């Protein structure tokens, strides 16, 4: 039976839940409570990143949520990411120890390169391979890698990425990347799966929502599910956290899946050129600093 405990087997044999919760754009306090609520309502995968500035709050939420439910660490799948400013071999290894400390964990289930920083992502990957072989991560992967960078990474890698987390939603589908990763046995995972207001207000999606008696968000998340995309919708509200997981009592027809497929506009919310590491005129890529962040966050 489909549900929040349904998993997909990654290319190294690790079982990864197909639907989880992300904590992007949440301060530490909000992240903590969101994680606790998510675990209470059956979620078994949490996605965080150093760049979000809330690993500490997420770690507190994991600790308290597992204790409240009398669950073991092995019952939860935790993903974090190598911050762009930490990329490189030695810096990745050093920074990861700080990430484990903030998360209050001895290992993570999946570690991703957050963005492919040019000139550094190969060395970063070598460090991640060491962490993988040392047992500090159960799987390693990438995020925001196009086909060119993926092929470059594979030419230098001894471990094939298990996951490529990318922006994927009705208006940003990047079918060429999905097909390439599928061919390589790399699981595609969606960030920003709901595509913001433009997708949620799309007339076609809202017609389908009315047809199936579901919300626009639920229709989109069900579409992701039927496309075989691992999905991590973000919410800080208990009602929405529950709603996002209520997608297992209906199924979109093949025709309706294709209707959403045709909404693709190749419209991204973030691109390489927006960051200074790729474009000197781009925006700074600093770790978000929230008012409730630990003073020693960057340690």
Automatic annotation (TrEMBL):
Keywords: NADP, Oxidoreductase. Pfam families: Aldo_ket_red. It comes from the Bacteria. The record marks 81 as: Lowers pKa of active site Tyr. The active site is at 52 (proton donor). Residues 283-299 have a biased composition (Basic and acidic residues). Substrate binds at residue 114. Residues 279-299 are annotated as: Disordered. The keyword Cell inner membrane does not apply. This is Aldo/keto reductase. The lineage of its organism: Bacteria, Bacillati, Bacillota, Bacilli, Lactobacillales.
